Amino acid sequence: MEDTNQAMDAIREQAEAVAENIVILSERTQAIGEIILTVNDIAERCHLLALNAAIEAAAAGEHGRTFAVVASEIKSLADQSKEATAQVRSNLSEIQHGINASVMLTEEAVKRVGAGKRQTDATQSTIRDLAESVQESVLAFQQIVAGTNQQQIGLEQVIQALQNIREASSQTAAGTRQLEGAATNLNDLGQGLVEAVRNYRV
């Protein structure tokens, strides 16, 4: 479980680092977009200047023919610059959308990793609580077993005491029978003595 937490922390840190790099890339893309706007503005101004130069060259007649060729080339370059900047702006726009999507996905990944981390922490806490509960149950069971063993020992002692009482009773009964026999013998002996005395008197 600890390894899982460390792995999720590493993933979260990597995702955050990727998100930071994407944000930096987005800022640089925006800066490039601003430069493209400047280039496009310059191209439009060059296009306008080329049109004005072409008009002036046409007004100059034969003397402005060479200037008209130069103005035409400037206009062509301005048009190409505008097309190139438009293409770059389109590509930058797509890149920006991709960057924004990547930022959102990265943020979502960070959130999910965070949620997974919290869930893992909660699971780990539950497992710890369960382990403590199991430990308490084991201790309680051990106490019950110990108490049962003590009860068993007490029961064995009671049984032993009953056996001792029974043996003592048997011994007492045997002693009583011996006393009864001795008393009978004494009684017989007394009767014999009485008869002997009577006979002696006669």
TrEMBL record:
Residues 1-166 form the Methyl-accepting transducer domain. Keywords: Coiled coil, Plasmid, Transducer. GO terms for biological process: signal transduction. InterPro entries: MCPsignal_dom. GO terms for cellular component: membrane. Pfam families: MCPsignal (PF00015). Signal peptide: none annotated. Transmembrane segments: none annotated. This is Methyl-accepting chemotaxis sensory transducer. Residues 1-28 form a coiled coil.
